[in-house]
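Need the bound structure for pyridoxal-5'-phosphate, inputs here:
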Amino acid sequence: MDIFQEATNVDETLDPPDWADVGALSHRILDDAIAYLEDVRDRPVWREMPAEVRAFFGAPLPRSPAPAADVYDNVARNVMPYPMGNIHPRFWSWYMGSSNFTGALGDFLAAIQGSNLGGGNHAAALMDSQVVNWMKEMVGFPASASGTLVSGGSMANIIGLTVARNVKAGVDVRERGVGAMPKPLRYYASDQVHSCHRKAVEALGLGNQALRRIQTDAGLRIGIAALKAAIAEDREAGFSPACVIGTAGTVNTGAVDDLQALASVAAEEDLWFHVDGCIGALIAIAPENRSLVAGIEQADSIALDPHKWLHAPFEAGCALVRDASQHRNTFAVTPEYLESTPRGLASGEWLHDYGLQTSRGFRALKIWMALKEHGVEKFGRLIDQNIAQARHLTRLIEAEPALELMAPTTINIVCFRHRLDGASEESLKGFNTEIMLRLQEEGIAALSDTTVQGRHCLRVAIANHRTRRGDLDLLVTEMLRLGQEIEAAISV
Ligand SMILES: *Cc1c(COP(=O)(O)O)cnc(C)c1O
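Answer from helper R.:
Posting the output first, comments after.
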């Protein structure tokens, strides 16, 4: 080894020996990234990985170095061509946003600055709080409310449900645990409630049975009379009704519970009112549809998901709590190594006091940059646009005798299926699943499926700023083509 090198570079670093080389590679990555988004419409939504690509991910732990350009080449070949597909204009599976370039730059810059949002006195921490304040404003929460950015809606719901438990426990549950509660708590939600709530009540030590699923009406909204009856029954049986969870946009069909009615029930019955607004809370910023979520501003806590209808790159969720002291009292702890100082770095607010994480990423930047660039009004219009597109698809389905709408369309989720004359429910499921899989495998469109009121159906969820109406027209045409092809093959 070169003696001079050895003398000056005894300490290793991850920084490159020559920043100029890094510059050239980085510019190439940026150019490729721009081209990737520019051409997204021309690529298949999804495609199966060939065997050699799968095998690539079985490679062992690298022990020695490789040039960064080769590392990028690996990614360009094996990762970028096989995405989940949610950035594609015809991706409508499950429920997720479609990301955005400015947000991606925000994620990059956040990583470059590298700040830890556990808190402290630095700019990223102020921006984190600012974005939470903007979220409060979007849903009509008072300025005195608190909130925190988390990984997604599941964590945001856990935050709200934990505060509810601690406030309603009847004992100091932080100190004494759920075993010391005088009566078992009961939470209520519709039978359409997202599965993360089950995980939440299990993790909170309340148990799955503590979450009562209330029957929904014909519109798949929580039945208010059934809810009241369940609360009365539980009080009679010695339980302590604690929390009602309203869903603003169910994951199955997009049904929106009557939030005003739930707020009244919660007030009358002295329950915590939590809104799972992962899908629909942001409808509050959409001028044409905001009345659908009226009443959300009366909640005690709200979970919402900037990585859905704000299209923040994953991950970004947000929990809001009306009473900031109840929020802090649930999570704040000050260990000796995190005491505040009167000045300097440790003089800022400790943001980890509002949730379960200690170290936190700088999620706010990607949300902040996209909101600044486009303004909240544009995001509101995009939400209205997706809802209008879902209504367009609904009309196409209603006008097409071979297709059948399976649930009312309220927002941006459409549940439907292809008919098959004389077929049993079982064969209809097989037939529609085959259509769905071929749409994916041919790279045309990504839909998912579900079961609504006992019947299997296909499901289109349009939380996508790249979708155009023509994409939905194409979906219908292609479904009819595939339906004919599959039907012909069955009858041979
Ligand atoms: C997506 C969703 C969740 C979970 O949110 P994640 O961001 O996926 O963790 C919870 N509830 C509803 C209604 C959702 O649509």
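Comments: The chain has two domains: 105-374, 377-491. The longest strand covers residues 240-247.
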